[in-house]
Amino acid sequence: MSDLTEKPTRGTRRRARSRAALIDAARVVMGQKGVDATTIADITETADLGFGTFYNHFKTKDEIVEAAMAELVNRLGDQIDELIGSIDDPFFAQVVAWRQVVDAAISDPMIGWFIMRSTKTMGIMNEGLMGRFHRDASTAVKAGHFKIEDMRVVSILIGAGILSLINGRLQGVLDTGQVNEGIALLVSHLGISIDEARNLVRRPIPALPQQI
């Protein structure tokens, strides 16, 4: 039986490599200089590509930040999946997942900038992370662990809650203890008492398999 799938051409592969190199370079430079101080010339120089190459892939700096964020969030989601896959308690698994999201946003300048400045944050977070929560929560509901009446409402509540905790931490309004209290409140919406949720957030949080 013949393979009908078209193989990518040499030009397509080269274009994909250039785009990936630009995104990687943007992450490196923005991590060092901050998003606002980074120029397109900084990105192309770090990627070892011509200045005009940037505009073959992106129209503006904000556009490459958005692309880098989407890739970063998906990579973070993959690592969180791997991390919580061995956790038997579905409630603690969500505590770990949400803490990792908050910690990543606090430690990575690009994520922090994007959450504070971009109107597209919720869409990328929903696509990259909340879909995974919906998957895990649906499994936990079917197994009788989570008690959720309306999955859509709970997903929106939790997604907005996590972003609010990140914003509060980045602005210096909330400290780590208050973020943990916020996560406990969110976990309690899954069907356990607030005291049980607080006990979960006090447990040590395992590290991601590797840096994102």
What would your notes on this structure say?
This protein has 212 residues and is mainly alpha-helical. It folds into 2 domains: 9-59, Arc Repressor Mutant, subunit A, CATH 1.10.10; 60-212, Orthogonal Bundle (Tetracycline Repressor, domain 2), CATH 1.10.357. The protein contains 9 helices and no strands. It has helices at 10-33, 40-47, 61-84, 90-107, 109-117, 121-142, 151-170, 176-188, 194-201. Helix 3 (61-84) runs antiparallel to helix 4 (90-107) and helix 6 crosses helix 7. The chain is elongated. 30% of the residues are buried. The mean pLDDT is 90.
Give the structure's gist in a few sentences:
It is built from nine helices and no strands. With 212 residues, the protein is mainly alpha-helical.
